[in-house]
Amino acid sequence: MSDEKPVKPEKAPKGEKGPKGDKGPKGEKPAKAEKAAPARPSGPPRLLVKYQGEVLPALKQELSRSNPMSIPRLDKVVVSMGLGKAVAESSTKARENKRFQEAESALTTVCGQKPLICKARKSVSNFKLRAGYDVGLKVTLRGRRMYEFLDRLIALAVPRVRDFRGLSPDAFDGRGNYGMGLTEYGVFPEINPDKVTYQQGMNITICTTAGNDNEARRLLTLMGMPFRS
To answer: Please, what CATH class does the domain formed by 73-223 belong to?
Structure first.
């Protein structure tokens, strides 16, 4: 018998692992199902089509203007909520208050856009308020979302207001902007009334490019705003 010893295989350096055998189907993880993106409505908003097809030609004739850029049009819509009760209940932690969180969720659902949290600019001792406290919510809508929100406001939300007899035709600020208020945000069909714990109102400001109140009033009337006669 020979005295030769068997040669040992060389070890791989530290940090490196040797090749592993191919795993069968047990080692494969099932592919995760991709979440379907929410379907977006096709085509331009209904209120925008109405403005371009009916309102714009009518205003051109009434105002005797040939330049379409000089015709009044909608600029933006600002929806805001004041949450003084939430501040009074929890002061510095108003954002963690259930009333605040419910209002933020409802405003997001109604407008389709996450609201901006407004903070107090000054300290008022009588209201136990300090500068920097979260006191309200605000959403600025432009473009497609603006027209879709106004369409739902005029056609669905306003007629559902209790004892509704028309909007005031005099609530303009002298610069062509109209302001209105709702005592309950539950008039919007997106809100489930069974899940509403705290009733909360909202302020709605419709900004236009009109130079005076008469032109803005006529624009909103042709758009379908139900003003009181």
So the answer is: alpha beta
